[in-house]
Amino acid sequence: MLLMSFPSIAQQALWGGPNIVSPEINKDHTVTFRIQAPDAKDVKISGDWMPRQGWIPGSADMTKDTAGIWTYTTDVLSPELYSYNIIIDGVKTTDPNNVYLIRDVASVFNIFLIDGGQADLYKINDVPHGTVARRWYNSPGNNTTRRMTIYTPPGYENSKEKFPVLYLLHGMGGDEEAWIALGRTAQIMDNLIAQGKAKPMIVVMPNGNVAQQAAPGESPKGFYKPTMQLPHTMDGQYEATFKDIINFVEKNYRVKADKAGRAIAGLSMGGFHSLHISRYYPNTFDYVGLFSPAIMPDPKVKSEVYDNFDATLKKQMENGYKLYWIGIGKEDFLYKYVKEYREKLDAMGMPYVYRESDGGHIWKNWRIYLSEFTPKLFN
Amino acid sequence: MLLMSFPSIAQQALWGGPNIVSPEINKDHTVTFRIQAPDAKDVKISGDWMPRQGWIPGSADMTKDTAGIWTYTTDVLSPELYSYNIIIDGVKTTDPNNVYLIRDVASVFNIFLIDGGQADLYKINDVPHGTVARRWYNSPGNNTTRRMTIYTPPGYENSKEKFPVLYLLHGMGGDEEAWIALGRTAQIMDNLIAQGKAKPMIVVMPNGNVAQQAAPGESPKGFYKPTMQLPHTMDGQYEATFKDIINFVEKNYRVKADKAGRAIAGLSMGGFHSLHISRYYPNTFDYVGLFSPAIMPDPKVKSEVYDNFDATLKKQMENGYKLYWIGIGKEDFLYKYVKEYREKLDAMGMPYVYRESDGGHIWKNWRIYLSEFTPKLFN
């Protein structure tokens, strides 16, 4: 065939270097990384399976062979979606042989997956797949259009049925790409639905930063370096205008537009948002999930959203709900604030389900929490 | 606020290094790149605006300052979407300060955009935006489910109107992510529609490799190193089963399901596919676009799809169509085959529009061709 005549030098130049495989998942679930760098003095790998020193990620030296290829093999790794970077002579960058990348705020990591156990929920299995759309909606409360990611379950398009909706909120520095990429939401939902463990549901992943129309690179602001903190993320504006999102979804999708058909959950800042949105609209959600929530017991920011906290929380309790779920890792830096919040709920007699996991403020936990929370919805 | 208490070391460790901006688009449309690499001996940049030596990409040395930051500033660049890599001590990798990345087969590039002129079509402007969905469909002809990317124009969901459809096919090594990422299809369509230059239309971007269910990383095959060549890409199977895609789209979307409402176009291998699909289904498409098509005048592969080439092409001509559009760059390695094909069309009296551009077999040209082709459709 004609395209066979592409010279091999062209293929090498255009579509990657020599045929180095990295990472290679070995049969025993160790993982070998390789990088060709004959002129580098020092090559390290930094992976999220390595012990951290406080906030500093762990790293390990790679070893150079006579051909200039550096390698590193891990110990046996448990099933999980892992991320890593390569550090070439002090520069933390990506593995040129691994095209699978995820951005988290302003950092880009390579990823790989060790299958088995919980991690099989993160794989694309041979099951029916939902549709994932990026869609713009009008937000009159913010006087602009904004972008969301929306998962509709397998069969949605060919059904006349009405589906329940989970609103799933990201953390600080995240956006409408966070849950679908880092959270593996589409894979988790496809798999749980196929296994009969979760009801078919729509999952709406909005952008929780009202200062943004869309994720970095996806709005008229163009390409810029993302930052962790943006104005108006935790000042009540998002919560107060959340009805724009609910209205859009309920007008544009075949949904169960009642309390029994609505759930809201979020991680970190999104847990804070979920707490306040479910309280501010106190008879709207039958299911609330706070994943490592960034509880703010004494906000400096004044907003009518945060006024009458205790009274509206009590109102939410009195109105009734089916599930108020709180999950946090034992090592999370927010642990003590969540503990205080639980004491407050205990004191007022507000029922909740509490899940304490290992680990800290990390996506590994949020994927687990999503996998455990969604089977409890809409039953 | 609580999350303000994230120590700055944590932010630096978790979400990127010191605040280096790279690339910086200067006011005069030169571009400055920066990378902190005090321990590197040699840092280069390789960008697609640099002259190539044959297939070998150009590169230039970056210069180190006393703080260990390497910089490089380009000459004035014309408006365009550009791609580049950083080469650290001989290792071609990505710029750690630029989170905007695109994969092309097995390579990952950083991107940036110089606005103005044609490139303004590639920007996300403040115009109504269509919806981009990744959706799975059943392909009985391939006995499997497969993934496609589908663009529905602004207003599609809130209309009762039927829309015409452009089937837009990728090249060898590409997949259903190629046109939407490298081709900026959603941006081009949003902008042309907003300017009244293109009719609102649905754009279907299927996966043209029947050996794949979906793009690398998006199928049960998991994460693996993508390759340029796959079995069954140019052996007739895709063309013969293309009706599965048309059937799916016409059953599941509000479309004009007639010849006047169908266009097909593709680049390189996708141009080859478009040529053969439009001929094999000779009364199906009123609009055909061959972008740098990989014409295969004497296929070694035997398939009933390629039988009776001349007779079915003549049949297509006799059935009539509104546009048969061929575009190619003067430096394209396929130029001579396209010239031969045009001579064949001339000899048989088959009308076509011919567009010859500068440059070679590159995405810059395919974005231009898409921008010029779509305004000619469905008028």
UniProtKB/TrEMBL annotation, chains A, B:
SUPFAM superfamilies found in the cross-reference section: alpha/beta-Hydrolases, E set domains
TM annotation in the entry: none
Pfam families the record matches: Esterase
One GO MF term attached to the UniProt entry: acyltransferase activity, transferring groups other than amino-acyl groups
Highest taxon of source: Bacteria
CDD domains per the UniProt record, alphabetical: E_set_Esterase_like_N
Gene3D superfamilies cross-referenced by the UniProt entry: alpha/beta hydrolase (3.40.50.1820), Immunoglobulins (2.60.40.10)
Protein name, entry field: Esterase
Organism: Prolixibacter bellariivorans
